[in-house]
Amino acid sequence: xxxxQEQRHIFYDSCLGIEAYQLSGIVQKFPNHFHECYVIGFIExxxxxxxxxxxxxxxxxxxxxxxxxxxxxxxxxxxxxxxxYRALNIPVPVMKKAAADITGKEFVPQFTVNVVYHSDIxxxxxxxxxxxxxxxxxxxxxxxxxxxxEQILKEHSAPYEEHNGVFLDSAIADTCEYLKEHYSENITLxxxxxxxxxxxxxxxxxxxxxxxxxxxxxxQSIRLEEAKKLLExxxxxxxxxxxxGFTDQSHFTRFFKDFTGLTPKQYQKIFTESGRDTTAGxxx
Length: 284
Prior knowledge:
By secondary structure, the chain is of the alpha+beta class. The protein is 43% helix and 23% strand. Helix 7 (215-232) packs across helix 8.
């Protein structure tokens, strides 16, 4: 297929504090990774095979996708079909505040499922996406957003403490924290094992089993999230790459596009051009 068949649109809505994006005509595979935010998406067209936290799903039109922060996942096309996918990226503070407003309780929501087949909630999700795309009034956008979250929180979520399926060994938790604190440095496997006083083999296998990603992929995912924050602040991509720990600019650009579907420059435009549409083509 040609790049002209692909459409990659992304918007940032300052009113809601969330990102909305659409991938259309896409055959790209997305490798194993996670997000620091909540992701609510749906398949508008095409079929995908999704792996998420050791479970597999065959997705098609009308299926709802729910990712908690740190839910590792990857996907690939089925039968060469083109993907049409729409989603919202919701930062944790935005979700916590909305959950408190909706339920009257202070808690961290946890999605109890990752996929809901043929869900009616996709209609509400499309309403939010369309309100953002058309730059509807703040009233209309907030109302659509709260109706969407109310449905999901009621039907497919629980307080994090009541539904936390992720147990981390103390050594693995310490390793995660170390990677988060030192992401911009040139970390080595030897350095990590010295921190926990355990073998490289144990760390690699146990870390991957408990978090769903390898230590290096975990580090790169953290670096990616930090780079996105810098790009949002209008830091030039080359500087954002260096400050986030990427030593090679071309590697940073390839990595960023592999995991987000956009180049760093294309992603940055939604914050430097008043949050309006950024369409990805072949720009590097």
